[in-house]
Amino acid sequence: MTNKIPPEHPRAESLRTREMLIEGFREGIVTLAGLIAHGRGEAFDYLLGEKTTKPALKATEAAAAAMLNAEKGIISVNGNTAALAAKHIAELAKISKARIEVNLFYRSLEREEAIKKLLIEAGAEKVLGAGKDASARIPELSSERRRVDPHGILIADVVLVPLEDGDRTEALVKMGKKIIAIDLNPLSRTAQKATITIVDNVVRAIPKLMETAEKLKKESADKREKILQSFDNKKNLSESIAFTEKRLAKIAKVGEFLVIGEEQDGL
Ligand code: PTJ
Is 43 close to ligand 1, i.e. is its CB under 6 Å away? Predict the structure, then answer.
């Protein structure tokens, strides 16, 4: 049973997101550690101002271009992502012609099947990677994340990994794949090792990615390739970190929050 959140509560949006994860945990979608991971994400989001920044929009554009130009694109889904964005994941897969694969750090057949069912109910046509379907292995990886679908992540050229752990990102990059990460922590190994890192909340980033892919779909593959080639992940990560630095410096000057909603302009 979810807690009733008054719409006028100043942190209603953030509380609603928490409730989605708590509900996901009760339904066997989210793992206990997923709740802790979300807390870390929330802290970074708080420092960021809980808004999509300009660097995040730039990374989103590059990510959409990479997904549309992929030959075998795939979206890797874990417990938190499924609980927070199942519908948008299903939509994004359709727009970008990407496949969807369940890939968990805390693997169990029950969770894999529950996440697969949730995604199918949310509109996904097919979901790879559950149970025996994950019969292939990623070399150099010891966690349960090494188990992948031979028709999915193993052969993909572009992999979207919202909310990841660093090991797998590194191993997938070594395999020659383009990795798109969504991670609120620009200092995480995932953020640092990915080809394109969107420093934003999954809740905002996946709908934005969907919207951007819809727009870029009307452009030529050449134009999308140019967007991709002109993107520099290190530079973008620097801009994301600098954004938080500037924001905090501004707040530090007055010792209290600036008017929420007006503070992003000019940063
Ligand atoms: O569902 P499973 O079994 O695959 O397990 C998933 C978790 C999240 C438990 C597992 O991947 C894990 O332990 O992740 P980490 O190493 O804690 O990393 C999670 C990263 O995601 C951290 O850098 C967080 O800051 C970030 N994060 C958390 N919530 C969000 C987020 N980034 C974007 N949007 C969020 N909502």
Answer: no
Q: What average pLDDT does the structure give for the chain?
A: 92
Average pLDDT over residues 192-196: 96
Nearest CA to ligand 1 atom 30: 41
Between the CA atoms of 31, 36, 37 and 42, what dihedral angle is there, to the nearest 10 degrees?
Answer: 130
pLDDT of 2: 54
DSSP secondary structure, 14-60, as one string: HHHHHHHHHHHHHTTSS-HHHHHHHHHHHHHHHHHTSS--HHHHHHH
What tens digit of pLDDT does each residue of 23-68 get?
A: 999 999 999 999 999 999 999 999 999 999 999 999 999 999 999 9
Beta strand 147-148 with 136-137 is antiparallel
Question: Three-class SS of residue 168?
Answer: helix
Question: Encoding tokens for residue 61?
Answer: 């554009």
Q: Is the CB of 50 under 6 A from ligand 1?
A: no
Distance 38 CA to ligand 1 centre (A): 6
Instruction: Please say whether the beta carbons of 83 and 21 come within 8 A.
Output: yes
Q: Identify the pLDDT of residue 266.
A: 47
100, containing H or E segment:
strand 99-102
Query: Is the CB of 55 within 6 Å of ligand 1?
Result: no
Report the distance separating Cα 82 and Cα 176, nearest Å. 26
Pocket test for ligand 1, best of 163, 165, 189, 199 (most atoms within 8 A of CB): 163
Whether this prediction's pTM lies above 0.90 is answered by yes
